[in-house]
Amino acid sequence: MSHYPNDIYTEPANVDADTLRNLGPLRAMAGIWQGVRGLDVKPKAEGPKKQAFVERFELQPIDPQTNGPQLFYGLRYHTHITKPEQSKTYHDQVGYWLWEPATGTVIQTLAIPRGQIAMAVGHAAADATQFELVAQRESTTYGICSNPFLEHAFKTVEYRIQVTFHPDGTWSYDEDTVMVIRGQTEPFHHTDRNTLHKIGEPEPNPLARR
Ligand code: HEM
């Protein structure tokens, strides 16, 4: 028996046009952010390599999104990462952060130009100061999907992200992307972390601007 309603078409009546008022724990992430003390641990032929990075992270509210009776409020994001004092892209990522108030669910979708996508899920209170999301390769709901070369050489089996909001208004993430690298016996932990400082306010979502 599923816990979903029999009527899968009718949209909820209580949709608020103003996304910024309904983002639950994601409210503290809306806006434009900079992080200058990022740390990446990446796979190299000779072993794990640490690299400092700087980041510009933009998260803007989208209009409320329904799937029949399901209602999400969310942010569309783009993060762009370079090595300090360089302009060449080191990592680029786009997607959505979604909040489902009815269930306290947080979802992150991510796409990176290596030809790889993932969708991670977790649960949180609306006023949470920390939460964690997870995606797993085997899952058809909150999974990871890679192009065939990555699946062959850097099989990505799990992705986790922990987000923490700090009292001074900054926030941090701590990620662990676990991959099984061809020729290696132990899984590799490709980790990334950064702390983000606000450099711009979010713009209201299109419907709230009218
Ligand atoms: C701040 C976040 C991230 C940064 C800065 C970053 C950076 C990098 C870099 C520089 C490499 C290449 C290593 C090299 O050969 O020099 C790499 C490899 C890789 N990354 Fe990330 N990454 C991040 C997050 C992620 C995420 C979230 C995923 C997937 C969910 C991912 C998947 C991979 C995979 C599969 C590889 C292996 C492919 C290869 O080495 O050619 N990365 N990452």
List the helices and strands and how they pair.
Blueprint: E1 31-44, E2 47-61, E3 65-67, E4 70-82, E5 91-100, E6 105-112, E7 116-123, E8 130-136, E9 144-146, H1 148-153, E10 154-165, E11 171-181, E12 188-200, H2 206-209
Antiparallel strand pairs: 1-2, 1-12, 2-4, 3-4, 4-5, 5-6, 6-7, 7-9, 8-10, 10-11, 11-12
Total number of domains: 1
Largest sheet features = 12 strands, antiparallel
Distinct ligands: protoporphyrin IX containing FE
Strand content: over 45%
The SS-based structural class is mainly beta
Please provide a written account of the structure.
- Strands 1, 2, 3, 4, 5, 6, 7, 8, 9, 10, 11 and 12 form a twelve-stranded antiparallel beta sheet that branches.
- The protein has 210 residues and is mainly beta.
- The protein has one domain: Lipocalin (Beta Barrel), CATH 2.40.128.
- It is globular.
- A hairpin with a 4-residue loop joins strand 5 and strand 6.
- The mean pLDDT is 97.
- The protein has two helices and twelve strands, in the order βββββββββαβββα.
- Helices cover 5% and strands 56% of the residues.
- It starts with 30 loop residues before the first strand and ends with a helix.
- Bound molecules: protoporphyrin IX containing FE.
- Residues 40, 42-44, 53, 81, 90-91, 110, 112, 114, 116, 118, 150, 154, 156, 159, 175, 177, 179, 190, 192 line the site of protoporphyrin IX containing FE.
